[in-house]
Amino acid sequence: MERRPRFAPNILITGTPGVGKSTICKILYERTKYTWREVSKLAEEFNCLDEYDPEYHCPVLNDDKMLDIMESMMEKGGNIVDYHGSEFFPERWFDGVFVIRTNNTILYDRLVARGYSGKKLEDNIQCEIFEVLLEEAQNSYKADIVRELQNNTQEQLLANVETIIEWIEKWKEDNL
């Protein structure tokens, strides 16, 4: 199936919970007016949640149902998708994938402040230490569209937003 050209790029902002994805997405949304697709909120809105995982204290996403719902949303472009995972999304959906990373000590403090504890806290810290979500993105998308961004400080957060805005402008120059 041939892809119709998009008027604006679709970007994925991914990374371990607590790295600052939603904060970056909120600022990008305000600056670009692109549609901010918070997958967790879409999953609730469109009833794409299956059983509850008692070990992690959260519901389990029904990937197939979520993808079916998002397919038409992604066609025209101009989407900022905000989710901790990346491997189940179709490669064709994204023009840019930005993996947000954070120092483990900072991440630990952020997750504890959110109420994470036990296995959920430990597993998310391990996920960041072992670069699981970076590797997932690198294995799921072409290397030239995946970028890793450090997000430890307010200065880095603002610089990351500028980096993504500049990337969007470059994409438009090259594709429109």
In brief:
This protein is an alpha/beta fold and 176 residues long. The protein is built from 7 helices and 7 strands; from the N terminus they run βαβαββαββαααβα.
List the keywords.
single chain; 176 residues; alpha/beta; Rossmann fold; five-stranded parallel sheet; two-stranded antiparallel ribbon; 7 helices; transferase; Adenylate kinase isoenzyme 6 homolog; ribosome biogenesis; EC 2.7.4.3; Adenyl_kinase_AK6
Structural class: alpha/beta
Average the pLDDT over all residues and give the rounded result: 94
Provide the helix percentage.
40-55%
The strand count comes to: 7
Distance between the termini: 21 Å
State the fourth-level CATH superfamily. P-loop containing nucleotide triphosphate hydrolases
Gyration radius over CA:
16 Å
Shape: globular
Major β-sheet annotation: 5 strands, parallel
Poorly predicted regions are none
Beta-strand percent range: 15-25%
